[in-house]
Amino acid sequence: MSNWTGFGAAILALTLVLLVLTRRSRRVLDRIAEDGERSRSRANYPTDPVEKSLDGEPSDGTADREADDAERGHPTDGVERDHPTDGVERGIDDSVSTLALFANVTITQALFFAVVVAIAWGSDVPASAFGVGPWAGAGSVRDLAAIGRATGYGFAAGLALYVLDDLAAALAERAGYGAPDRLRETLSPATRREWAALLVVVLPTIAVFEETLFRGALVGAFAIGFGIDPWPLAVGSSIAFGLGHGAQGRVGIAVTGVLGVALAAMFIATGSLLAVVVAHYVVNAAEFLTHGWFGTAPGDPLRPD
Q1: Angle at 100 between CA 99 and CA 102, to 5 degrees
Q2: pLDDT tens, residue by residue, 285-296
Q3: Per the database record, which ranges form the CAAX prenyl protease 2/Lysostaphin resistance protein A-like domain (predicted)?
Q4: What is the model's pTM?
Q5: Helices in the chain by DSSP H: which ranges?
């Protein structure tokens, strides 16, 4: 027999821990950004193209830069050299690499997911309460068709939600309430290897864990186990979902909360955890690809030329 009381208490405690850690993560991101700004300041050289030398003649600043180089221990043979910028342009100090951040995020999310699974298993809560249908282990043609439909619904919904999410962020920015891009900038890949890690490992792990907790457990399982209407649960879980993205600022929390309501509505309508996992992944992947790979800003189509 399912221990719904123990399950509910443990899931709520886990959600609270997650929100506390989110606040701490925001402080870490702030520190990384501040370190990056200091690194950029140290790496910058005088940019005034014309400076006055001691004899009053124009100077391009070469002598001053060579003097600075000598003080810093850099070669002063007059040959221009590229100075290291790894981790500086992206606002990350040299001690923190993008792949290290990816590993940290992936491991943390995977551990939280394992805790949710362990809580459900220990409380004898069935997988069906999370929206995981019998197709998960059956493998018949009919079940594969259901998987395909859920994946298709999730992909289409994810694209639509990304467009709406992007437009909402753009409208907020135009109204003077732009959300900070620190999180996306910190995790933005710079190499093909990093892009592969982000798209194949990091984002799927985030989507699986967050949907399992915020939609599967806090909406689906709670509605079945406690006989509660799922719609109030959808609102409550979406508030927690938004607060869990506190690194994106107040506007980011609001936009993410609304996105959570949309994902919860999709979960209630389809009863499929797979569909919302795919939709969540598509939203995140599309955001990184359009803003990171293609370099567009939120809501560029709304901006005048």
Answers
A1: 60
A2: 999 998 876 666
A3: 195-285
A4: 0.75
A5: 4-43, 62-72, 98-122, 135-138, 141-174, 182-187, 192-197, 203-211, 222-226, 230-243, 249-270, 273-288
